[in-house]
Amino acid sequence: MGSQNYGIDTRVAESVAAEIKTVYDLGIEIAVVVGGGNIFRGVSESAGNMDRAAADYIGMLATVMNAVVLQDALEHAHVYTRVMSAIDIPQLAEPFIRRRAIRHLEKKRVVIFAAGTGNPYFTTDSAAALRALEIGAEAILKGTKVDGIYTADPNKDASATRYERITYQEVLEQNLQVMDSSAISLCKDNNLPIMVFDMRERENIVKAVRGDTSIGTLVSN
Q1: Quick one: the chain helix, strand, coil %, rounded to 5?
Q2: Does domain 138-221 bear CATH number 3.40.1160.10?
Q3: What is the pLDDT of residues 163-221, one digit of tens each?
Q4: pLDDT category, 3, cuts 50, 70, 90?
Q5: What is the DSSP string of 7-43?
Q6: C-alpha dihedral over 6, 57, 117, 211, to 10 degrees?
Q7: Distance from CA of residue 181 to its chain's centroid?
Q8: Domain range 1-137, CATH class
Q9: Contact between 164 and 220 (Cβ < 8 Å)
Q10: b or e along 8-19 (b: 16 or more beta carbons within 10 Å of the residue's beta carbon)?
Q11: In this structure, are strands 110-114 and 149-150 parallel, antiparallel, or unpaired?
């Protein structure tokens, strides 16, 4: 959403697409899971006492919109892209089929996973962990607004320090909330590393792919 209160800033999409293209040009297979907070959080305050399942489905639809925006930005950057949705929206996206997703990656297409898991009560983090395991990803790169995991909220505690490495168990025990506990547990059980970094800094996506832990925090066993 850029500097807006909510909505889509296409310049941000273009910036992310440019960084993904840099990674794509290295010959690395990339799948992207997008969230929908920039759209749904903007209207959720006026939604009142909405049923949780209904709210989650609205959030999933928001991720589909973001996925289509990112696809457009990537294709303008001459990157072959496919959007795969956990909710059936054939006019906009292919249905998620695991073998088809893997085949797209083998054909050097960037795959964007939309609509989370397709089920309420599961976050985008859980969707990212699930899809990563399904396609055999080597790592999850968690692009966020902070440069890693801290001992406390750095915006509230000046003494907070950043971890360069931390275990899944420590994240869960300290309730650090960089990802929801279901996603962390899924990664822990399957030994899938998570790199948490600030995606607003230029070239950080490329650095994360190259395993540069100086830009964030690596979560592993």
Answers
A1: 40, 15, 40
A2: yes
A3: 999 999 999 999 998 899 999 999 999 999 999 999 989 999 999 999 898 999 999 99
A4: confident
A5: S--HHHHHHHHHHHHHHHTTT---EEE---HHHHHHH
A6: 10
A7: 16
A8: alpha beta
A9: no
A10: beeebbbbbbbb
A11: unpaired
pTM (predicted TM-score): 0.93
Q: Return the axis-axis angle of helices 37-44 and 52-76, rounded to nearest 10°.
A: 140
The amino acid at 65:
M
What does the pLDDT read at residue 152?
84
Alpha carbon separation from 59 to 41, 86, 112, 141 (Å, rounded): 8, 13, 16, 21
DSSP codes joined into one string, 186-217: HHHHTT--EEEEETTSTTHHHHHHTT-GGGEE
CATH 3.40.1160.10 domain residues, the chain: 1-137, 138-221
Structure tokens at 166: 């931390």
- Judge contact between 117 and 126, C-beta under 8 A: yes
Question: Cα–Cα distance between 30 and 147 in angstroms, integer?
Answer: 21
- Nearest by Cα to 143 from 65, 203, 82: 203
- The number of residues making up the chain comes to 221
> Could you tell me where the beta strands, DSSP code E, fall in the chain?
31-33, 81-85, 94-95, 110-114, 140-144, 149-150, 162-163, 165-167, 194-198, 216-220
Task: Say how many CA atoms lie within 13 Å of 124 toward its Cβ.
Answer: 25
At 39-91, the pLDDT tens digits run 886 565 656 678 888 889 999 999 999 999 999 999 999 999 999 999 999 99
